[in-house]
Amino acid sequence: MPREKKEHKYYKNKTTLTVYLVLRALIIFTLVRAVFRREYQSVFLCALSLGLMVLPSIISKKLKIVLPSTLEIIILLFIFAAEILGELNSFYVRVPHWDTMLHTINGFLCAAIGFCLVDMMNRNDRFSFQLSPLYLAIVSFCFSMTVGVLWEFFEFSGDYFLGMDMQKDTVVNAIHSVNLDPTLTNTVVHIRDIADTILVHSDGTQEALGLGGYLDIGIIDTMKDLFVNFIGAVVFSVIGFFYVKEKGKGKVAHRFIPQVERPGKE
Question: Which pTM was predicted?
Answer without folding.
Answer: 0.86
